[in-house]
Specification:
33% of the residues lie in helices and 23% in strands. Helix 1 packs across helix 2. The chain is globular.
């Protein structure tokens, strides 16, 4: 059985978070079960982009503080590292409040810049991942619970995509991002290359709607933890009311018979699951109804069955972030506004995810509009 620990934490007040994290880990044997004295422990938060903590885009700094203190309490050497979707890791860490916590606690900040090539064992033959991520003695995964326009949900497994450094993220979106199932398989293979020793989920305030960068903060009041990232994700999705058929990462895990992918093999501990009353998260905009279509139809009807990004000129400041973050280089600035090449666009929505001004909307294709109307009627 895979244990997933749950604890109620109503706010980010430092003492409440500290006690909540201690109780959360106590149900799993305490931090001393995962970290030994002298071990270098990489804590990997979500550092998606340079947003303040209240935006719920990144892991909250008080969660990071509590975990660093727990690692230090048992004699571990705390390192903190990630590679953001856009901008420098230091800038994102500073804006999110995490850099101040790192400096106050005496932890070491290790931005992911240097890479190491590792061999894959599945669909993908080779990956370049951050060297600190691969070489730390222990790995603690510290994701934020958020909806995700491409993967429906981002939590433990998806957070590990941060081990892919800088522009390589765009390369992977270009290689696998046009197919959600293929992209989910890639995420699972990254996870298998270095499975975390411990996963702790910040769901005190989660994100719903058009996450992971443009959604709305929503109070959930929970922390989750467990050794198995897939199992923790499955319980998080259950609490968030996300249908299993939309969990691409979980589906990929089940297809590969990965441990943690079966609900009957998961035991929840700590705060009783049956006593939790969590409102289902509002899911992202439905942007794709191609599931199950043969390849030749997907190619021909792609524009009709999917959504495409469009600019809201009133909000767009032509900052160029979307141009830099677009894997297939499908965006240009012409005539004083953004222009999209929809033949090249792979519908990964990295542009929407990273736009600092929430200036990008989605326009549904004709058949997608019809499918939504039919779904609503039934």
């Amino acid at each position: 059985m895979h244990k997933v620990s749950l604890q109620r934490v109503a706010s980010y007040r430092p003492e409440e978070v500290r006690q909540g994290v201690a109780r959360l880990l106590e149900s799993l044997g305490g931090m001393e079960r995962f970290v030994k004295p002298g071990e270098r422990v990489l804590i990997k938060p979500n550092l998606l982009s340079a947003k303040p903590p209240e935006a719920a885009v990144t892991t909250h700094p008080e969660i990071l503080r509590a975990v660093i203190r727990e690692v230090q309490r048992v004699g571990g050497v705390a390192l903190v590292g990630d590679s953001p979707g856009i901008g420098s890791a230091r800038k994102v860490a500073e804006r999110s409040g995490m850099l101040a916590v790192i400096e106050e606690t005496g932890a070491e900040f290790v931005p992911f810049t240097e890479v190491k090539t590792v061999k894959g064992s599945g669909t993908f033959r080779e990956f370049e991942l951050a060297r600190p991520y691969l070489e730390a003695d222990r790995l603690i995964n510290l994701p934020k619970l958020k909806t995700h326009e491409m993967m429906t949900m981002t939590c433990c497994v998806k957070n590990l995509f941060g081990a892919v450094v800088g522009t390589q993220k765009a390369a992977w979106h270009l290689k696998a991002g046009a197919d959600k199932e293929l992209f989910a398989r890639m995420l699972i293979e990254v996870y298998q290359l270095r499975e975390p020793d411990l996963n702790i989920v910040d769901a005190v305030v989660a994100m719903e709607g058009n996450g992971p960068g443009s959604g709305d903060p929503c109070e959930v009041g929970l922390l989750l933890a467990g050794e198995n990232a897939v199992a923790v994700d499955l319980v998080a999705a259950e609490l968030a009311g996300i249908p299993r058929k939309l969990l691409y990462v979980e589906n990929a895990a089940r297809a590969g018979n990965l441990p943690g992918a079966l609900r009957e093999a998961i035991e929840t501990v700590g705060f009783p699951l049956e006593s939790l009353e969590v409102r289902p998260l509002r899911l992202p905009h439905l942007s794709d109804v191609q599931f199950g279509l043969p390849g030749f139809l997907k190619n021909r009807l792609r524009h009709q069955f999917t959504s495409r990004p469009e600019v809201d000129p009133a909000k767009c400041e032509l900052c160029g972030v979307c141009l830099k973050s677009c894997p297939p280089d499908a965006i240009r600035i012409e005539g004083g506004r953004l222009r999209f090449n929809y033949q090249r666009c792979i519908r990964c929505f990295c542009c929407r995810e990273l736009c600092p001004h929430a200036a990008l909307t989605l326009q549904d294709g004709t058949l997608l509009v019809l499918a939504k109307k039919l779904r609503h009627r039934h």
